[in-house]
TrEMBL record:
GO molecular function, a single term: methyltransferase activity
Name by which UniProt lists this protein: Class I SAM-dependent methyltransferase
Alphabetical UniProt keywords: Methyltransferase, S-adenosyl-L-methionine, Transferase
Source domain of life: Bacteria
Gene3D superfamilies given in the database record: Vaccinia Virus protein VP39
Record GO biological process: methylation
Membrane-traversing stretches: none
Organism: Streptomyces diacarni
Length: 219
């Protein structure tokens, strides 16, 4: 994992850093899989919404990291003292197995290419100890006409992009995945999926979307 610069779309340093993020933690999944005393990395933490939430829930060892300086600046402005760190590239400075769990919430949706996705998950596999937990929340491929139209439009203009990739009017580049793709990403880096839950989540654009949460155990 020598010196990988993540592909971070410029929107996360601009308008994206003003958005309110919406994927809710599932309290049942959290309690069942991540012990209170666990060391947790909230990777792609944005402005630290979930880092703060876990801290409020009584998790004392949570660190949020994000490649967007604007996100971290906002997080520290809104919640001074929260454990947030700007992390422009990979690898993370932490030693192997430094964490008991990683949160990866609505991040892979913002990392459209397979290679960058694999780099993120592989690095989290390195810093989560064997037996530790990965808790992922994503918007999978949607079936409604609005989403299908934007997937198809993007496929036509960028035929090599994975199906499910689309742009937003603000200039964001996103990707919705099949559940099989998400499972394969996890297993490809040594995480075994152990529990999944589906639900709904509001999107950044104010629509409702299906949401998929996966919990996986590091082998
Ligand atoms: C939709 S926000 C979610 C933030 C946070 N996880 C939450 O749920 O509140 C997506 C975050 O992913 C970050 N991001 C974008 N590309 C990334 C990459 N290649 N690696 C890690 N994080 C990335 C963005 O800076 C942004 O903070």
């Amino acid at each position: 994992m020598a010196g990988v610069r993540p592909v971070v779309h410029g929107v996360w340093e601009a308008d994206g850093a003003k958005k309110t993020f919406t994927h809710a933690l599932d309290p049942g999944l959290l309690a069942a899989h991540i012990p209170r005393e666990g060391r947790v990395i909230d990777y792609g933490c944005g402005y630290g919404r979930l880092t703060a939430h876990l801290t409020e829930l009584g998790y004392p060892h949570v660190t949020g990291v994000d490649p967007s300086g604007a996100m971290i600046e906002r997080g520290l402005r809104e919640r001074p003292g929260l454990a947030l760190r700007h992390q422009p590239g990979l690898p993370l400075p932490e030693a192997d197995g430094s964490f008991d769990a990683a949160l990866l919430f609505a991040v892979l949706n913002c990392v459209p290419d397979d290679r960058s996705q694999r780099a993120v998950v592989a690095e989290l596999a390195r810093v989560v100890r064997p037996g530790g937990t990965m808790y992922v929340s994503e918007v999978p491929l949607q079936r409604d006409a609005r989403n299908v139209a934007r997937y198809e439009q993007h496929s036509q203009s960028s035929p090599h992009a994975p199906y499910g990739t689309f742009t937003t009017p603000e200039g964001g580049l996103f990707r919705h995945h099949t559940p099989a793709h998400l499972r394969a990403l996890l297993t490809g880096s040594g995480f075994t999926p152990v529990e999944e839950r589906t639900g709904t989540a509001p999107t950044l654009g104010g629509h409702q979307a299906t949401r998929l949460q996966l919990v996986a155990r590091r082998s």
